[in-house]
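Minutes, methods subgroup
Present: GH (chair), OT, SY

1. OT presented the first of two proteins processed in the latest run. Sequence and structure tokens recorded below as shown on screen.
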Amino acid sequence: MLRLVRESRGGTQQYAARALGAFGDTADPDFWSADAFRRKLAVAPPGLIGVGTARYDDVPVVVEVVSQPPVDEPQGWDQVVEASLELPSGKLAIDGCLSYEPTTSPHIELAPGTYRVRVYYAGQNTVDEDWYRVVLWPQSPYEPPRILRQQESSPLTHPG
């Protein structure tokens, strides 16, 4: 599960707790498909993204909301993937797959719409030093996930 370390929006920082997710069904048997395990990013369109982490515990994540796609290069990161996410309510739920509670899980308030979400993975081959950077920006229309940089070997394997 991801633990939100810092949310950055327009130069301000806010602290919150727990993980990244959005509204949807993580119990769907196709959610963590073989493709999702390979990407380390599960998608249940239009409103749920799951981030595969290197360990099953709270992990640090920095969430940034920007107006345009990042121009940084994926080199220097273990893996970089992105997917679209529709937020008709403008609320992005922050929580783990199994601990989401609509009334108590932390949320980030955004303008309603479709966003592109880019996830940067670091420390994937370490013990308890993995961390994640998640960048969101408005983007329409909805597009399928894509891998920008992939780690050669992954500690995650598909159970099937």
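2. SY then presented the second protein from the same run.
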Amino acid sequence: MRLTLRTLLAYLDDQLDPADAEVLAKKIAASEFATKQVTRIRDVTRRLRLGAPKLRGRGMGLDPNTVAEYLENTLSNQRVPDFEKLSLESDIYLAEVAACHQILARILTDPAEIDPASRERMYELGHEPGAHDKQAADAVAKDEAEPVHDDSNKVAADEPPLRRRPEIPEYLRDETSWRGRVIAASIAVLLVVGFTVVVWMALRPPGGEGPLVVRDDQTNPSGARETSDQGPSAQPGAGSPDNPSSGPSSGANDQPPAPAPIKPDSTSSDTPRSTPAPAPSDRAKGQDDGLITPPGDETSTSKPAMPATDLAEPPSPEEATKPSAAAAEDEPPAESTTEDEPAPPQQVGKLDGRDDLLVRFDKGEDTWMLVPEQDPLFSGDVLVGLPTLPASVTLSTGVRVRPIGGARIVLVAPDEAGIPGVNIDYGQVLFEPVADQAPAKVRLITGDRRGTLTLETPGSRVAVEVVPYRTPGTNPEEAAPRLIIDLYTVSGRVSWMDAVSEMPEPFEAPAEKRLQGPALPAADLQAEGDAPLPAWTRGQEPPSPLDLRAAGTVKQHLEVGKPVTVSLEELVDDRRSEIRSLAARCLAYLDEFEALIDALNDPAHRSDNAWFAHVNTLYEALNRGPEIANRFHAALLRQRPPGADQIERMLWGYTPEQIKAGAGKQLLDDLDSDDLAVRSLAFWNLRNLTGLILYYRPHDKASARQQAIQNWRKRLPEWLATVPTAGG
């Protein structure tokens, strides 16, 4: 039996004879590509927010009739290879074919059993009481009044022809359906037993003895809910008014929770672990200042390499018993107080105009959605500005907030003075007053710093940059990053009053102040004096014509009411490389990394701006914290299991000491690797360390790269000789 997509689907849906299934299983085990496709098929059919082909699509793979002909085995042999190739290249088309095959296999193998009484009740729907009896009586009276004719050999003209009984295709016929029923029944029994144990453990009082006491006032203090495998790893807005953990006092509004970093199972800090460690399901309790853990995937794990049934593990007793089993038997129900009740969200602003595009996390839908034009924004809203797409929010105090390319912020409820706040998770954000509304105030909450920013004059503009920082060469899965917070006074006059200070600190443009963080490397420090402020502080940098066209296409494709990740995943398959690139980068800012991982091996991204932006985006994502690093690790294992550890280690970066210890020689060898992603990351690391280019281009052919590689082998030791040793 040949190993094709059709036979692979029949094998996965248990539609083959035992002998054929055994032969095919051996072929799958011997083929790395087939093993990867088995894992991929199971992944795409379970992905909750994966898009689907259009109902009226045209062309190979988009037309539902083509899919039906392929499954019916009536598609011409000339078209089958193209159809299978398209299905294997696209997750959307592969999920469509696999899901349809699975549904047909189930329907044709195990017909639905309907209770006769239920069937009769359904047929009676739509008829008034007694109407059936009346119609029957009228029919009898009509028959008695009409003469009787012998029509035994005559067919009524209006009688429809008998419908031909559909035949089951040969490859879907199953002579061993009993095995599927036994497996389904066994799984159902296991699920029922597991659910019973979980419920019993959840309702069991502390100590395991004594009668069960259920109290009406028991609630989940964290307000967090479990997410699916495709949902974010941490519920955004955990510290929002929808889910506060502190009282209403103004002091509590400005105190952030201590971050709870995810500790990986591996104890080694030199190499990535081979399997992802799932993030803890319980999230850190946020405060009312809107401090959050960025959305990510807590439960993402690597898929098995061989065909296997994925069984979800029930929660442990420790997880199941907190916090609902915290009530004591003899303790009377406590009266609800205002401190225990979550405060309702407060409107703090709105999206400005139709040209602004902002993404908001919808906790009800558990996904990212587009903010409609002029839509009100509330405290606790988690907002992301996508790269090259402008966004602008006006707060109730007359302050305009503009996230610049990939910034994530959380809106914070007003304090006792009525001043709303903005919690900057990461990225670059501009603040300026609305016309003729100066002075205007906004509370700034980020990292360990919080205070009030006052825009004194109408033309004032302040830029704030929050950069998660990690020492290059360290494992991002093992420690939380440090934050570098810079405040730039771009124009006008502003003042900053820290929460622990009694006097505001004035600034006159141009000015720069480091609010928090260690000293940057010398290469990143700006010179004192008349050095201009960073270009991004003047607003969204003018994009190139290609980026401008890509941004317009992405903006037109995003729809209000449709998950943003689904729309972007559809653009990842666009024929134009600039649109694929922008869509993949946007998905990475929403903590979806599969598309950007694939882009590392896309030879169409030849320009330095494109592939360098891809690597920088992934590097910055790893710096956001262990949760995001774990999510990236799981995505990397799914997309390219071979070489995943090498790719991840190269994205950590290197120190000069590590280069001297042997990493430099490996990077030089990787410049001539057959893997485009490895070549690109090797050059990216060497360029960041030395500032040199030496005419090397990772997308060039092997013969064209040789001279540049020889230059690198000569210049890297010379550069290392100029680098002082640690502590020297």
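Chair's summary of item 2: DSSP finds 21 helices and 15 strands in the chain.
Next meeting: continue with the remaining queue.
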